[in-house]
Write a structure and sequence with these properties.
Elements lengths: L3 H11 L21 H13 L12 H17 L7 E5 L2 H14 L7 E5 L4 H10 L2 E5 L10 H7 L4 E7 L11 H11 L2 E5 L25 E5 L11 E5 L2 H4 L4 E3 L7 E3 L9 H35 L3 E3 L7 E6 L5 H10 L6 E2 L8 E5 L8 H18 L6 H9 L7 H11 L12 H9 L2 H15 L7
Parallel strand pairs: 2-3, 2-4, 4-5, 5-6
Antiparallel strand pairs: 1-7, 6-7, 8-9, 10-11, 11-13, 12-13
Length: about 475
């Protein structure tokens, strides 16, 4: 048996190579308010309620009360009318999964489909895979990167059970024309889901935002995350429905076994009440006024970066707090990402998709705002290095091999060989510099990218026995 101090020391050692969760330099994956009191309060509530179980609200009425409070808060932000209903989930992906499930289960369509802009979050594809709902992907406007309502209308048929829009899209940070999409749904009697997972706790506090909430007729459900710009610990999201009847098909129940009757509002059964309590505590502490200040601060940071960046340019003007930056001339953003990492910044690259360019993703949080001059300087220095290095040079033979590969016909040995060529074989960690690997993945089809990275993940997650 190890001592408490020994275990804590090992935990600290394990964290040594993680990206920082606070400090404003990690521009994806984590969201930092910069408020020490809010962080400490969230962690305290997370620990206090970590052992509770949200499976049965009659056993833990505290969790039920906090869930109802959070859903009411979200409903007020998103212009919900009397009779709306909502559920706290583990994150945006679960909220989206449940929205798709609810649409499928409420329909009598045998082979259901949903119409998605090409910029819709990957979680919709996951839902399609899990629930057998065919994704009909429609190209977006090539200039604005917003959904094309006319193209979406043309894609609708008798099998369509759901239409999707983003507020904003994760990759590009722009709000789809939700009113036009919702009008299609209203005309055809089809549910319309707005993915506001990353914008729902920011956009309500910004001026001159295109309509996207329940104030838009035809919007039937909205997902919004608290562990993003709600600045609470992972993982908490909320799925709201315009009315309780729309939510009914989200639930699951079975009494067809000898134990307790299983009643689930979410995909999970047993679930810790810690994240819910932490979100409730942080939201109660900050309130509307605190969130309004944080939203304005993060929004201004995104505008300052967009206006001040050199060598890179925004792919499209941001509607919220997200930026996609592309190269303004002949260099690789993959090298820029590596250089930023060497300078202590996580600025993840986004690979080319459906003819769009590779880009850098930045989620600007309130904690990053004071660091914008430093961020702009680091980007400028990183661009200078990337320009001097020139575009990543890939072996033409390797590019040809990748372009010709059919991932469905590859066995484990073939994947091992390709991973080795790509620099992804051996060891339990990625190489420090990823530009060459990202450039090669950028040449691969989406299907081959998936197959290669799944093969790598399979090899990465093979634990050794603990001593």
């Amino acid at each position: 048996m190890n001592s408490v101090d020994e275990v804590l020391a090992r935990l600290r050692a394990l964290r040594a190579n993680d990206v920082p969760t606070h400090g404003g330099r990690t521009l994806s994956y984590v969201y930092d308010s910069g408020l020490a009191d809010a962080d400490a309060l969230g962690r305290h509530a997370l620990a206090d309620f970590g052992g509770t179980n949200g499976l049965d609200p009659t056993a833990f009425p505290s969790l039920l009360a906090m869930e109802n409070d959070l859903v009411a808060f979200a409903g007020d932000l998103l212009d919900a009318e009397s009779g709306f209903a909502g559920t706290v989930t583990s994150g945006g992906t679960e909220s989206i999964l449940l929205a798709v499930k609810a649409a499928r289960d409420a329909s009598a369509v045998v082979s259901p489909a949903m119409v998605l802009p090409a910029t819709a979050h990957a979680a919709f594809h996951k839902a399609a895979h899990y629930f057998g709902v065919r994704p009909v992907v429609v190209d977006v406007d090539p200039v604005t990167f917003r959904a094309d309502p006319d193209a979406m209308r043309a894609a609708v048929d008798d099998s369509t059970v759901l239409l999707v829009g983003s507020a904003p899209s994760y990759a590009h940070g722009v709000i789809d024309p939700i009113a036009a999409i919702a009008a299609i749904g209203a005309d055809r009697g089809i549910r319309v889901h707005v993915d506001a997972c990353i914008g729902g706790w920011v956009l309500p506090f910004l001026p001159d935002v295109a309509p996207w909430t329940f104030a838009v007729p035809g919007v039937t459900s909205i997902s919004v995350d608290l562990h993003k710009y709600g600045y609470s610990p992972k993982g908490v999201s909320i799925l709201l429905h315009r009315n309780a009847e729309l939510r009914r098909s989200q639930f699951f129940a079975t009494a067809d076994w000898p134990g307790y009757t299983m009643l689930n509002t979410t995909i999970q059964s047993t679930k810790s009440g810690g994240p819910l309590a932490a979100a409730w505590a942080v939201a109660t502490f900050l309130g509307r006024e605190g969130y309004a200040d944080l939203a304005r601060t993060a929004r201004q940071a995104s505008l300052d970066v967009a206006a001040g960046v050199t060598g890179l340019r925004p792919l499209v003007a941001p509607d919220s707090t997200l930026l996609a930056l592309v190269a303004s001339d002949d260099f690789d953003v993959y090298t820029v990402a590596d250089e930023m990492a060497a300078r202590g910044w996580l600025v993840p690259p986004q690979l080319p998709y459906r003819g769009g360019p590779a880009s850098l993703h930045l989620s600007l949080c309130a904690a990053t705002a004071p660091l914008v001059p430093e961020l702009l300087g680091a980007l400028a220095d990183s661009v200078a290095v990337a320009r001097a290095a020139g575009p990543v040079a890939l072996d033409p033979g390797l590019v040809a091999v990748v372009a010709a590969l059919d991932p469905s016909g590859l066995d484990a040995a073939a994947f091992d060989g390709i991973l080795a060529m790509a620099g992804l074989a051996g060891g339990a960690q990625l190489p420090e510099r990823m530009a060459m690997i990202n450039a090669l993945l950028g040449e691969a089809s989406s299907q081959l990218r998936e197959a290669l990275l799944l093969a790598f993940l399979h090899r990465l997650t093979r634990p050794e026995r603990l001593s």
